[in-house]
Amino acid sequence: MFDADLWREIIQSINKNRTRSLLSGFTIAFAILLFTILFGVANGLQNTFNATFADDAINLISIYTGRTSKANNGLQAGRRIRLKNEDFDYIEKEFDTKIQHITGRVNRSVQASFGVETNSYPLRAVHPEHQFLEKTIMLKGRYINQNDIVNRTKVAVIGRLVEEDLFLDKDPIGAYISLNKVPYRVVGVFRDDGGDNEERIVYTPVSTAQRIYGNNEYLNQIKIGYDPKMDYNEALAFGNTLKGKLKKRFNVAKNDQRAVRVRNRAEAARNANLISVSLSIIILVIGLGTLIAGIVGISNIMIFIVKERTKEIGIRKALGASPKSIVTIILTETIVITAIAGYIGLLIGVAVLKLATPILEDYFIKDPGVSNTLVLGATMSLILAGAIAGYIPAKKASKIKPIIALRND
């Protein structure tokens, strides 16, 4: 039940003892402020790591080729190694149980036009599974399918910004665009979390590009999504095995680093995960240290406050106050001060993070922020600690005889 007299007395007590109340509140507010900023920065760093892998699948292996830098088995250095459809088929068959997705890729630059609008865009000719490796999100229509590969159809999937550039307010699905003066029917529009550059790309079937741009079977890259059940060590071992077999297939020296290059995101993901975990542990330790310091601070202040109020407690008992009412008023006052100070600390911490966001982003700390649930939990911990710290001496003081309490120095 709401007790108006109790709350009036608490407000009067806080008002009459402003210095004491401010010191108590400052300890709590500073602890929550520091706690909020530390965990906000930690979350910002975690967001940075997550953004690094937002564009492509985390289980991605990319295969590139170049020229040999070393002679091998009687073959001179400088040979050009090129991927073909038969290499794509070999990898798909040889490592079938370890591959989740696979796609070839042919890269071109095209002049695209629709009506009077024209612009230059990168063209990526791919297989259907490229959608999952690139994390392409369809907004309209569909992506390239296997029928497009088999029939070498002239269809295109365009980025969101390509649609804005060329079609303005018109619906592009079913319309024809010219790519280097070759008509393609638009079958889909996509978006990509990788940024504007990724949304200014045109996708076409890889078989269609091979026929139009040279009537050949060459691929610029092969991308693989390995089985996501693999751990980091298994994924790295798979990448090394893949590279070794491809070098043997192309008759490339084992120590030749240029002819066949395999970029495995498992290594970057492992390093990022280690950094993220280490950082989280460090921040957690610092945050808990800050919280413990706050708990110790509020505990010491509460012991001092109860001792300072011994005479007041004696007067209350002399006037007929029960031990329970004395404990209740002290604990309620503690909880009120802790809750208000904690909320103020939270507001200041959030404001500091918001104001510092532009500066922090220059240091690759993306969208620093903290969960309200986490900070509220920390505040509740301090409130509980303050209540416990206040309860023990308050309970002890409430049992002192009035005459002894009034004589206390």
Question: Characteristics of this structure?
Answer:
409 residues; alpha+beta; six-stranded mixed barrel; two-stranded antiparallel ribbon; 18% strand; elongated
Please give a structural write-up.
The chain has 2 domains: 4-53 and 272-406, no CATH class; 82-249, no CATH class. 36% of the residues are buried. The strands form 2 sheets. It has a 6-stranded mixed β-barrel. The chain has helices at residues 4-16, 18-52, 85-94, 130-133, 146-151, 160-167, 206-212, 232-249, 265-308, 310-318, 323-362, 372-398, 402-407; strands at 60-65, 83-84, 99-114, 117-126, 137-141, 155-159, 176-179, 182-191, 202-205, 218-219, 221-226, 260-264. The longest helix has 44 residues, at 265-308. The protein contains 13 helices and 12 strands. By secondary structure, the chain is an alpha+beta fold. Helix 2 runs parallel beside helix 11 (323-362), helix 9 packs parallel to helix 12 and helix 11 runs antiparallel to helix 12. The protein is elongated and about 105 Å long.
Number of domains: 2
The helicity comes to 55-70%
Radius of gyration from CA coordinates: 34 Å
**Average pLDDT for all residues:** 84
Secondary structure tally: strands = 12
Count of separate DSSP helical elements: 13
Q: Please give the largest β-sheet.
A: 6 strands, mixed, barrel
Strand content: 15-25%
Order of helices and strands: HHEEHEEHEHEHEEEHEEHEHHHHH
State the low-pLDDT regions, or none.
none
What topology, given as strand order, has the largest sheet? 3-4-9-6-8-7
End-to-end distance, in Å? 36 Å
Q: Note the overall shape.
A: elongated
- Class inferred from helices and paired strands: alpha+beta
